[in-house]
Amino acid sequence: MENRQIFAPEILPSGDFGNRYSFLESDLIAIERWIPKSNYEIPLFITNHGNYTAPTTHGEFAVGFPDFLSLDTGNLVNLKNVSRGETGDYGGKVFFRGTDMHTSVNKLNSVILTELIEAAQKRPSDQRFIMGVCNSKAGLFPARDVYYMDMWDPKKNYHVPRFYHASGFYVVALTLRQCQGAFPYLYPATPGHLINVSRVAGFEEQSFGIIVTFKDTDYTCPISKPKHRKLKKILQK
């Protein structure tokens, strides 16, 4: 397991957002299917240092990444990857390194575009990863490679952040199946729980089923009997 830093907004026990925006991969205990509101499912990352969830809005990225700035309605630009700007009476455009890709700049931001780019170039490169899906394959993508973001509507009333980079684009991962693609070492304890096998401390058999316990935490989760039998064999190797 690599110890990558994963971008994800912190979720407090109250359900409100915290002030942290990443966790270390080595701290990951489990991922649960979370239903914060009716007909809305997103992953909840359980770690040794709090719980986190998948970012679903431009606002969460803008707060978490100082280099990501909305230059026009509907976009969020990684200013560190801007190669040049073009401005005029209408506003302008920004272009990105090694590509003809560009996005728009509104008139207000076009006036201070040079200053915004220069300030971003002085900040250190971001080392975090974003969990996403590209060509149906889930993985962890370096945030520093993002050129800009917009929102994509793959189906009616369903909006997903989309990230453009040199080779194309990917969208933020929001399902447990996609989480398992990004973290292939996680074990499916139930259809709604992926667990980090290296953190398993043991099992408790209760009247209602089997519970998995974990090292250095009070967190527990259920496991189905077939998955329990298989996991015990894995742990004995």
SSE layout and pairing:
Blueprint: E1 5-7, E2 10-11, E3 22-24, E4 28-37, E5 40-47, E6 50-53, H1 58-64, E7 68-69, E8 76-78, E9 82-88, E10 91-96, E11 102-105, H2 107-111, H3 113-122, E12 129-134, E13 137-142, E14 148-155, E15 158-165, E16 168-172, H4 176-182, E17 186-190, E18 193-196, E19 200-206, E20 209-214, E21 220-223, H5 225-236
Task: Describe the overall structure.
- The structure is a single chain.
- It is elongated, with a radius of gyration of 20 Å.
- It has 237 residues and is an alpha+beta fold.
- The chain has helices at 58-64, 107-111, 113-122, 176-182, 225-236; strands at 5-7, 10-11, 22-24, 28-37, 40-47, 50-53, 68-69, 76-78, 82-88, 91-96, 102-105, 129-134, 137-142, 148-155, 158-165, 168-172, 186-190, 193-196, 200-206, 209-214, 220-223.
- The model has no long low-confidence stretch (mean pLDDT 93).
- The protein is built from five helices and 21 strands.
- A hairpin with a 5-residue loop joins strand 10 and strand 11 (102-105).
- The protein has a seven-stranded antiparallel beta sheet with strand order 7-8-14-15-16-12-13, sandwiched between helices.
